[in-house]
Amino acid sequence: MIEVVGIGDDGWSGLSEASRHLVERADTVIGSPRQLDLLPSMGQQERRTLPSPLRDNLQSLVGESGRHTVVLASGDPLLSGIGTTLIKAVGREAVRVHPALSSETLARARMGWSAESVDVVTLVRRSTDRFLPFVTPGARLVLLCSDGDGPAEVARLAAEAGAGTAQLTAWWHLGGQNEGSHSTTCAAWGDERTPDLVVVCLEVGVLDAEPQTLGPAPGRADDAFEHDGLITKRDVRATALARLRPWPGQVLWDLGAGSGAVGIEWCLAAPRARTVAIERDPDRADRVTQNAARFGVSSRVDVHVTSTSAAVRDDDLPRPDAVFLGGGLDRDVLDAAIAALRPGGRLVAHAVTRESEALLHEVHRTHGGSLTRLAVEHLEPLGRFNGWKPARSVVQWCLTRPPRSKESA
């Protein structure tokens, strides 16, 4: 059994009696140099620093049979901590976690924020832009940073997204003798670096402007994305997302991604939702990557430069919960995509030509689902007056794969 003991910046004095007893009786204590320095000397007890890279050396943490091993973690070991890594590696039965107050809890206490009013986002060993989808009017965010460069990077990204007036408070060494803080607006933060053990509290009020990138609702303006004209237009895109129905943690295949707009909005609509974007044109694939970073979902959009026909037969891709095909339809690709769907999965395909529309009628007869013709008109100047200008009509085919129980029946 590996005992994972959370320890704060207050060190030994902040541990509970039970946690102290675990450390005292351990044959081996493993932690970072900073954490080990917080402990008093204990005779012949072995002290070891965490191996690097951690995942490749986890076996050394398991210890010899019969030896008592304690692994130190910062605060709550299950909040972006080693506790989660160990449980995934050796199983829940082999790990027992003893949390201390987390930095997130201490930061909320300093700010006077209730838990239910806050979103916690970890930026530790992750792309800093991943907090951007949470930047909405009235939001309160606690951001766990990798190091002292984090607050300045958060401030810069928030200001660029239209939250320059948001109040940013950085707290470092929470609960310890060196605790400190600095607070100002994102626009005024500048390049100031803080100590590495830092947490950012971000309070968003009224946004500087009406941003096109923020919030969960689909159907963002087309010019919110970089594109070369190959983009599913906003009104049609919104109906596609409504039928794809993003769920937390699910995977979308965006086949022929173009600008990546559908896959990016899929990620923004549900927590932990991910997209596999397939685009054969390298320039467009780069554009998908850039757009994903702009919207703060770069870590959840996996771009592959390949053809759709090759992608749907790639066994290394995660099996999709939903599939979107915005054009360039092919019967073999459609059949393979349907076969790849998980039970209960959804597929949406669009056609704008007579030939691709005929194909959708064909697969509709074979597989069922629903066919819808979408016609959108926009008011535009017509001489001295105004008139309605129709956009190209789109035929939309939607299919939901039955749950496993119905398939079996």
TrEMBL record:
The keyword Methyltransferase applies. Residues 3-184 form the Tetrapyrrole methylase domain. This is Bifunctional cobalt-precorrin-7 (C(5))-methyltransferase/cobalt-precorrin-6B (C(15))-methyltransferase. Keywords: Cobalamin biosynthesis, Methyltransferase, S-adenosyl-L-methionine, Transferase. InterPro entries: 4pyrrol_Mease, 4pyrrol_Methylase_sf, 4pyrrole_Mease_sub1, CbiE, Cbl_synth_CobL, Cbl_synth_MTase_CbiT, Cobalamin_biosynth_MTase, SAM-dependent_MTases_sf. NCBIfam families: CbiE (TIGR02467), CbiT (TIGR02469). It comes from Dermacoccus profundi. It comes from the Bacteria. Pathway: Cofactor biosynthesis; adenosylcobalamin biosynthesis. The keyword S-adenosyl-L-methionine applies. CDD domains: AdoMet_MTases, Precorrin-6Y-MT.
